[in-house]
Amino acid sequence: MDTYGLLAVWSGYLFVMMSGDLYDWFDDSFLFHSGEIYFSPLLDLKKKLDGSCVSGNRNGMEKIKCDTEAVDSSIKSIFSERRDLDFAEQLWCKMKCVSSYQELIACFTLVLESLECGEIQPWIHHGSGSLLSKLIQQSCHGKMEAVSLTGITPVQMLLEIGLDKMKKDYVSFFIGQELATLTSLDCFISTSVDLQEQVHCVQKLHHMLEIMVSCTVLLQFKHESLFPWTQICIKYYRENPLDEKHVFQLPVSSALVKKFYPDHLEVWKVDMSSGHGPKEAKTTWQVSTNPPVEHMMSNNTGLLSDSTVNAGIEEKMYFITVVKCSQVHFR
């Protein structure tokens, strides 16, 4: 399971536990096999810190699967590109796959005891709002408050450091690709809102990331197109809740999609709007190789044709259809 999927699982656990509907996870009999299994990654991290301190049918389905895998692979590489992970982010990478509540408690107990004794003095990024980051800052000043690793606290601590890491991953991508500024992303990375709202903000960032990566990987669109599209997505999600089924109207020039055209276009359609409010009028022009109605087959009124000097090539006929729509008031 990818990082985003794991974060969704942990947030699901937390919110169900907060509602009081999940009890089995707290059962003492639900333990992992051996302490060595889940302690070994943490001990490795601790040693590291110690050192530093001193197409149709089947073909169509296969293509969809291939496209999906390409997008997923690109997103996965984005989350593995950063090299400036702080202690809390590295801890998330080690602990995100723990398999029991007891295992989670044991891992955090080891970390907190090491901090309290001064065995480790890790560094963390500025601006992190997680409880663990606050405890790390306190340990540097020799006074760390006591934390009871009971109830939802361990799960909440893990979710917080996971959210912090993913926010930095998304910000790193959008700023690194020059698609957004830190100011424009501020509302999505704020730690002043509750944990559930922070999860929703990360989900919005992930949806925007999926759109941009899909356009890059599948359509090979460049920065000049991706930048305005990112701004449209950011504006929408600043004002609206998460909606993964929302259809974004992204402007695309014909030159960008020319390579996807068939050899002979069968339908051209243009929508135009004018006026505002009660005076608004909409006009649709459509040019098609098929007649809009059957009776147009017998006459040449309202149609165009491609003339050709080669008599052996069949002449193509194009039918023009115009639809106008405006408000009419009746008394």
Description:
The chain has 331 residues and is an alpha+beta fold. It is built from 10 helices and 4 strands; from the N terminus they run ααααααααααββββ. It has helices at 3-19, 35-53, 57-79, 87-95, 101-116, 131-140, 153-176, 182-189, 195-217, 223-239; strands at 267-274, 281-288, 303-306, 316-326. Strands 1-2-4-3 form a 4-stranded antiparallel sheet, with no helix packed on it. β1 and β2 form a beta hairpin. α1 (3-19) packs antiparallel against α7, α2 (35-53) runs antiparallel to α4 and α7 runs antiparallel to α8 (182-189). The model is unreliable at 27-39 and 307-311 (pLDDT under 50).
Which class best fits the helix and strand makeup? alpha+beta
Shape: elongated
Number of helices: 10
> How helical, in percent, are the residues?
40-55%
Biggest pleated-sheet summary:
4 strands, antiparallel
Strand percent estimate: 5-15%
Regions with little confidence, pLDDT below 50 for 5+ residues: 27-39, 307-311
**First-last Cα distance:** 63 Å
Helix and strand sequence? HHHHHHHHHHEEEE
